[in-house]
Amino acid sequence: MCGIVGIVGNEPVAEQIVEALRRLEYRGYDSAGVATLENGQLDRRRAEGKLRNLEVKLSQAPLSGVIGIGHTRWATHGKPNETNAHPHATDRLAVVHNGIIENFRELKAFLETKGMRFETETDTEVVAQLVTYEMRQGRPPIEAVAVTLPRLRGAFALGFIFSGEDDLMIGARHGAPLAIGYGDGETYLGSDALALAPLTDEIAYLEDGDWAILRHKSVDIHDENGQLVHRPRHKILSGSFIADKGNYRHFMAKEIHEQPEVVGRTLAHYVNCTAGRVELPIDLPFDFKDLKRISISACGTAYLAGLISKYWFERLARIPVEIDVASEFRYREAPMEPGELALFVSQSGETADTLASLRYASAEGQHVLSVVNVPTSTMARESDVIASTLAGVEVGVASTKAFTCQLTVLLALAIAAGRARGTLSAEDEKTIVDALIGVPGLMSEAIKREHQIEILAREVSKAKDVLYLGRGTSYPLALEGALKLKEISYIHAEGYAAGELKHGPIALIDEAMPVIVIAPHDSVFEKTVSNMQEVAARGGRIILITDEKGALEAGLDTMATIVMPMAHPIVAPIVHAVPIQLLAYHTAVFMGKDVDQPRNLAKSVTVE
Ligand code: M6R
């Protein structure tokens, strides 16, 4: 994740931009940079490492432009050196970028055939060159950006300034957040309210697909179809920045929508996008190839992330995995051979049962690895090593972005294990890593099904009971769908392995109980379709969550079919988490429930 700030000002802006970047440093500090325009001339300063290095450069060679953009970087593509630092510039423009441009390789190849030259290893430079190419074809800056944006795939936010244009900045949001600030004869662009707080108290959040034209006295916001749109302005109060709901009614909604960005950030931390391989940012005090088994313990949604990872570790690394809910494991007196790996998963890092299990495993001589979101938590402190999920603060009690970030980290670990054990070839690793890099973009696509899901939620809200079914990694996801639905809507929901249906739960099928089936087109798709036939034959009403191919081949009547974009089967559970979260959310909202603070629950369960 990177931080973006822009100021269309009336006095030299470099100092203010650096101040704003300081508040964005939590988003990355691999490098930083500022570009400004003075009498139409572009100039920039960039520095590797922390912001103070940039400040030194600026003190030696100040910038005096009154319109400028700044960036603090968390490297995804290319080393964290000065060459790769933002803003990236051509003779026509400078651009800052947060997120990943997935199709940068094919765009770069296209531009090279047109004679464009590249200086960096970044995906961002492709954006700079593509807009420049369009301008060289005679398009004015706004039009050049407008034709470029639809060609970019991935989850990203962008900010541009242009040579010779002293009253123009363009911001664009596609899966990564971006806010507009309104001042007195000045306008601003920022990754979040926190960045803009000292500059203005009036901001508007861009929605996905929006792009904005900022001038000193006006801001025009267009949606992804190019239509002029109005986005509500908010007064921001000091002290409210950390727990800011943005344009959303609930934190849960915001956290669902943040997922393309936060998952992108997490995977950028664990994979080398350019090389297409996992590079763990931690030193493991053990070697995966020496392990005979992994024991996983966790609670609730974190347990279900662990259960999905069991499929990954066993399939990719051929290593047996035992998994328990921590409240059982801690008292089970499980025999553990010293020197094996005990893996714990927790958002808070404070869950009492998981912590007790961790202490048990530690006393049994296990290597303790925790996948946690709060790096200062007790579990983090008591583990031999932690793999941070980097999801940021999760306020909604129903875990959403922490879950998909846990999955991202666990998949990276399973891939690393497969490589270390010689069970995953470099080619297969690249295929899966490339699929993983595509996940933020697919999650953005999945979020576009929200309106359909919102309408469907009205039907679901009438049910007293709901059954979720799935096979393979869709089975733990079915359990998660049921958990999400019950915890915030209070509708009784059960998750089952689809193949278990005929061993009992099929007796429950009737017209009153929706049966939600998660079935991407994978190796067990046809088996799941057979189970759906069994439900349909008994008058059950099916809601099918599948992908484009699955929707074509399912061949049966459903109450509704939610069609996800195609994803590689290994990464599909991360993408398919989105519709089950949205369905739970909208059902609960429609029923008037307290979505962020559901009854009887707490965010961090520090008692048994
Ligand atoms: O902080 P943790 O991840 O250890 O919490 C575990 C569970 O309490 C948590 O996932 C809970 O199930 C959520 N409310 C689910 O949405």
Automatic annotation (TrEMBL):
Positions of the SIS domain: 284-423, 456-598
Domain of life: Bacteria
Start and end residues of each Glutamine amidotransferase type-2 domain: 2-217
GO MF: glutamine-fructose-6-phosphate transaminase (isomerizing) activity
Record keywords: Aminotransferase, Cytoplasm, Glutamine amidotransferase, Repeat, Transferase
CDD domains: GFAT, SIS_GlmS_GlmD_1, SIS_GlmS_GlmD_2
Primary subcellular site in the record, as a coarse category: cytoplasm
EC identifiers of the protein: 2.6.1.16
Positions of the catalytic residues: 2, 603
Function: Catalyzes the first step in hexosamine metabolism, converting fructose-6P into glucosamine-6P using glutamine as a nitrogen source.
Quaternary structure note: Homodimer.
Protein name according to UniProt: Glutamine--fructose-6-phosphate aminotransferase [isomerizing]
Lineage: Bacteria, Pseudomonadati, Pseudomonadota, Alphaproteobacteria, Hyphomicrobiales
